[in-house]
Every structure is written in structure tokens, then in C-alpha cells.
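Working notes for the structural subgroup meeting. M.R. asked for a predicted model of this chain before we commit to crystallization trials. I am recording the input and output together here so anyone reviewing the notebook later can reproduce the run.

Input as submitted:
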Amino acid sequence: MAPLLSGSVEGTIPPELSGTFYRVGPGRIRVGKQRYAHWFDGDGLVFAIELDGATNTAKAGARMVRTDRVVQQEKAGGDSAGIAVRGAWTQANSLFANLAHSPTNPANTAPMFHAGKLLVLCEGGCPIEVDPQTLETKGPCIFGSDLPMGFSAHAKPDPVDGTLYTWGLAQPPALGMNVAKIGANGRVQQTATLPQQTNEMQMSHDCAMSSDHLVFILPPWKLPTGNMAGALSGASSFGHSYSWTDGVGAWMVVIRKSDLSVVHAREIPAMSTYHFASAYEKAGKLHVLVCRLIGAREDLESNFGNMYDSVWSAPTYNTLCDYVIDLASGNLESSDPVVPPAPTGPGSPGGGLDVNAGQLPMEFPIIAPGAQHRAPRFVYTLGFSGGGGGYFDAVQKLDLRKGGAAGGGEGAHTTRISPPGVFPSEVEFIPRKRPGGGGSGARAHEVSEEDEDDGFLLYLEYHAAQHTSSLVILDAKDVAGAPPPGGPPPMVR
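Returned structure, recorded in C-alpha cell form:
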């Protein structure tokens, strides 16, 4: 990482914010002039920005993750060779580069520290370790030979004991999915099979974790048996062989964390999802805060297939819902939105939506780390106001205590709308450091409901006209306003 130029920091970085912010995403979605056939096939890039609140300075750096697929592409001739390596959605130009070749790992989804290592995650393969200072690729991180072939993109670290829970496709020639738990020291503790709905393959991008359970909800977006031979042999695209199965519900599986045993596995009403916010247990019920796609999965996947020409509207986003499961019977008792959708409101900055009276169409929900394993008061989302920008244009703070099923009303929630042509991304909550630390013991990570939003929201935003990005720092207590001592929020360009 290198120091940023003088003037790159606008405003004042909070003195207690000293550390490094990491993000991972598709850094290249084409080889030469040939585009990949899906956004999720993009070759991974890891970005880092180191903040020094004491001196109000920053350093930044970015590197492509040197995966096996990148190395193979270079050996084949680089950009001039066209697409030489098979991806999950993108076929190589040569038939022989596809046949009997599994899709390669782009390492493009999420960063995570575990067992003292900075890892880049993607369900396309095992984690890739990178150096946290130089961002140079160290290579694949193999935790155990009996782990699933595909590591999850959103593996779940337990805040109490540091155990990491992950899942992925079973090792060939087996079909299906496995779940694994890895100790804080990096040693594999246990693996188990995730029960499947049918013999058709399904994928699970994310899951929800409570204090005692993991919850998976797999949409009926499946690899039909008729497409399986071509997809697995390499004769056809793996990802594009999936389709929506009408007349079939989603598949819900509840796993006990202590021994990875199956508590419940059953069909629930059909829905599509990619991400979860959290889960918690209360009075014999398991609450799962999950994104439920508003429109059709086929339309969403079509957008992912060509992000340059995609058209985004409310149906291609989600509603955050509270799926309530009775732990004794396994019945899904309700699946209402955590907050009613934002109503229309004349004169609203959100192009007709009253953005502070309900939840916007959204994605990437998060909660404060101190609210894990209990009912959170606040959820932070990346929102779509419909104001004309064509993509995510809002960061929203939902107050579940004020705006639950009974309705919110004007001012119940807080929304920050970005200027036209400026697009925010997934937010990260950083708790404010407390004098004397956070205590010790099994519940040391928790904070009270009143202190739950005592921290900062950090996110990258893209400025389309300048083709530049900035790191924005918001006071989580005042998402729409400005942090003390006034003026615009701190920003690192």
C-alpha cells in the first residue's frame, strides 16, 4: 500500500478509526474485448485502504488475485488468446479447454481473516490467502482434504469461540453439498452432508447463523437432471444450465452447530434469495432475517450476465423478511417483511418513495457485530430509491423497533441518498472503541440495544463521471447527516 496524495482525505477521519478496510470484487470481467458471460466469473481484485485517525492520513493499494485461472490465461497468451479457461458461467473458446475441466475459481467475493490469515473467498474453490500488507497472492489455503470442493463465499465465524462454519459442493464424484466447521486455529473439526430436496443440484450462496443453529434456504433454482451431464462434463456452461423450477417450493434446512446434525429439512413456499442479515432464537422460535427477491430470478440472472446493458428496477432487488421457524415442529410460522416497504410520497428525494417511512428495495443487509445472536434493533442495507440513477443509490438504516409489522411512519428510518451518478456499495459496521475494551466471556461481543448503533459505517462509492471511487465514513447514529464536529462526512478519494 502507498500513501495517498495530499488532499485525498476530505474532512476528518475519526481518531479511533485506525486500521485497514478490505474489499474484494470482480476486477476484470473481460479478456481482451471478450466479456465473461456472468459478473460472478470476473477475476478477483483485492483492495485495501489503511486509515490513520491520529494523523488524518491514509494509504491504499489494490492487486489482482493471482489464481490458477489467471496464471493459465497468461500461459495461453493473455488477452490475445481470448477466454482460454472455463469459468462457472463462461465457457472457454476451445472445446478441449472445457471438456473434463471443472469451472475455475475467480476468487472474487469476500475477504475474511481466519486462523491468522487474510483469505479471499468464493464458492468457486478453496480460499486464496493474500498478504495483508502487500496484497500479494500467497496461494490456496487448504484447511483439510475432506472439506467441500467449493468453499462458501460467506463463511460464518462465530463471535463467541471463533469457529468458522462453511459449506460447498461435495468432492467429485459425489454430488450434493457438505457443511464443515473449522476451529479458530484452522483445524477441521467436523464435516457433514447437507440434505438435498431432490437429486437436482442446488446452490447456497449464504446462510444465517444464530447462537445454536445454521439456517439454509435454497431456492428452486436448480440444475435439472437433463442438463447435468453437459454441465458437469464441460460440454455446456455450468451456471447457465440452472433454471427456475415452477411448482416447487424452496428448501429449508436447520443445522445444529454443536454437532452439525440436521434439526429440520423441509419445503417452504417458493422464494429466491442470495443473502441473509442474521438469525436469532427467542421463546422457542428461530428468527431468520433473509432477503427475498421481489421479482423473477431469471431477470436477476439476466442482469448479472451483462451488467453493462442491464436495467435495474424494484423487482430485481429484495425485501428483507423475518422468517419465523418453530424449533419444536420445524414449521415456518410467518415470513413478513421486517419493515413494510417504503410507500410513495410526493416530493421525496427517492423519486416518489417516502424513503424514511419504510424499507427500500435492497440487498446486502448487515447488523452491528454486537447484535449477533439476538434480535437486532437496527439493520443497515444498500437500497434502491428509484430516483433515476439506475442502480443502488442509497444507504438505509432500518429501525426494527419503530418500524416493525405495525408500520413505521415518517422518520422511522434513516436514509442517505447519493447524488446522481454516484453509486454506494455494501456497508461495513465498525464498533466505536470503548474505554477498557469489551470485557470477556461468552457474551463479551454483545452490546445493549441502546448502544447498538455506536459506531461507524464504511463503504466504497463509485463516481461514474470521474471513474473514481471513494471511501465514505458515516456515523452510524446519524446515517443521513454528518458526524461531529459538522460538515460533510469524512471521505478518502
